[in-house]
């Protein structure tokens, strides 16, 4: 690969041959252009120290763009409901009540809810794995993404919000179509995204109204209750904004996390003893999966430089929009020695996979539980899985919600059975 090519970095990241392995390009970026201006006009920050600093200083040195700033960045918003939705989300994120809602949600997710959902992950995981067992034993290929990662993470996510089986697929598909709008993959995608975002918004409104009328034991009810007790009551924009953020960042990324775990199982058979040990060893395996092949390419929340910022000898000018390249920072050799080696025994405390600072991921505990439980279970049931073809990456490259995800992931049993 010619890293000095004239093509824009984002365009090169979208190239099919780099979707699975963007790391040579990201290394070039980190070493040569650690503060890189893309043709789209925003900057990519890729060294670990710079990314960590920028994430921790969000709120003073860098700020999350407000609704007006986003409207400047996306002038098509007036014509497109999907882009307008994104603007509303940023508007909501900056209102004071949003932080209170997030705090409540973090407490809820970190404690009792994840413990209770853990039981569902076990039951649903076993059910999905049973569903493909016969075909695997018969030597057939199965699609791990469509048959396990997606349905499992969607079921768990839908349970949090009390969304039933009939509705959950439609909501998930529509949310992802809306995310594509910001990448403007195509005019057709943008038009489809408009309709999709309107359907999701109406559905979220129905859910909110329903939980007000008939509270249940789910995160959705807890959010509505917290909103109505503590937060300003100017309509439901805040809670709608949070629901959008949760669905845009939470469900697809968890499925991608499980897919990365399966890829690690296929690629690193010498490290699988980590999945046959205790909970801490499984957790170390999961942490290394999340570092080694980052689910998040770029931070989903953009930041604007509040002043000129020097990163070493590079400058991010005041007013510039920046995205942090988590996938590059997680392979920075100044923090992770021999970063291209998959090694669950390494010290992964500095990993930035789940963000850092004020916008640290609210779903981190849930994702880690999901990955540990499912990867351990599947390795226990099928210790000799192999790839059954190339995985198929999603069309969106992850510049909108930051996620590098798969559409298909064929696997089968190895030859030893
Ligand atoms: C493997 C799966 C996941 C990864 C890698 C991931 C990663 C991240 C990262 C890097 C951020 C920081 C964004 C930034 O600073 O721009 C973030 C934020 C966030 N994540 Fe996750 N996430 C995952 C799953 C989830 C799940 C399951 C949920 C919900 C249950 C969730 C909810 C959120 C929310 C709400 C935010 C925004 C926080 C805020 O508004 O301050 N994430 N995530």
UniProtKB/TrEMBL annotation:
Family statement drawn from the similarity comment of this UniProt entry: Belongs to the cytochrome P450 family.
UniProt-listed PANTHER family: CYTOCHROME P450 YJIB-RELATED (PTHR46696:SF1), P450, PUTATIVE (EUROFUNG)-RELATED (PTHR46696)
Domain of life: Bacteria
InterPro entries registered for this protein in UniProt: Cyt_P450 (IPR001128), Cyt_P450_B (IPR002397), Cyt_P450_sf (IPR036396)
Annotated SUPFAM superfamilies: Cytochrome P450
Name the record gives this protein: Cytochrome P450
């Amino acid at each position: 690969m010619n890293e000095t090519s004239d093509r824009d970095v984002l365009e090169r990241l979208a190239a099919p041959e780099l979707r699975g392995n963007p790391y040579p390009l990201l290394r070039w970026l980190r070493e040569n252009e650690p503060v890189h201006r893309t043709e789209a006009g925003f900057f990519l920050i890729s060294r670990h120290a710079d990314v960590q600093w920028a994430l921790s200083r969000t709120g003073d040195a860098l700020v999350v763009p407000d609704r007006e700033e986003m409207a400047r960045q996306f002038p098509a918003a007036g014509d497109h409901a999907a882009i307008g939705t994104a603007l509303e989300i940023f508007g909501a994120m900056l209102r004071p009540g949003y932080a209170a809602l997030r705090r409540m949600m973090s407490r809820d997710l970190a404690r009792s809810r994840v413990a209770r959902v853990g039981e569902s992950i076990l039951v649903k995981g076993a059910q999905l794995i049973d569903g493909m067992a016969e075909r695997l034993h018969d030597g057939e290929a199965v699609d791990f993404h469509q048959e396990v990662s997606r349905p499992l993470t969607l079921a768990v996510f839908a349970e949090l919000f009390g969304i039933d089986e009939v509705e959950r697929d439609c909501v998930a598909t529509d949310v992802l179509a809306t995310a594509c709008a910001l990448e403007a993959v195509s005019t057709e995608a943008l038009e489809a995204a408009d309709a999709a975002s309107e359907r999701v918004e109406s559905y979220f409104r129905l859910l909110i109204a329903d939980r007000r009328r008939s509270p249940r034991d789910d995160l959705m009810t807890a959010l509505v209750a917290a909103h109505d007790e503590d937060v300003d009551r100017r309509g439901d924009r805040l809670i709608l904004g949070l629901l959008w953020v949760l669905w845009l960042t939470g469900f697809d990324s968890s499925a991608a996390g499980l897919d990365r775990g399966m890829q690690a199982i296929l690629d690193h058979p010498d490290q699988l003893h980590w999945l046959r040990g205790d909970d801490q060893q499984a957790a170390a395996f999961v942490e290394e999966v999340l570092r080694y092949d980052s689910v998040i390419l770029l931070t989903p929340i953009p930041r604007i430089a509040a002043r000129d910022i020097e990163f070493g000898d590079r400058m991010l000018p005041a007013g510039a929009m920046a995205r942090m390249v988590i996938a590059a920072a997680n392979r920075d050799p100044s923090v992770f020695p021999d970063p291209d080696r998959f090694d669950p025994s390494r010290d992964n405390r500095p990993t930035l996979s789940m963000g850092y600072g004020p916008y640290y991921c609210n779903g981190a505990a849930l994702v880690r539980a999901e990955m540990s439980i499912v990867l351990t279970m599947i390795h226990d049931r099928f210790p000799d899985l192999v790839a059954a073809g190339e995985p198929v990456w999603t069309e969106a490259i992850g510049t909108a919600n930051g996620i590098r995800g798969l559409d298909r992931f064929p696997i089968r049993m190895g030859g030893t059975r």
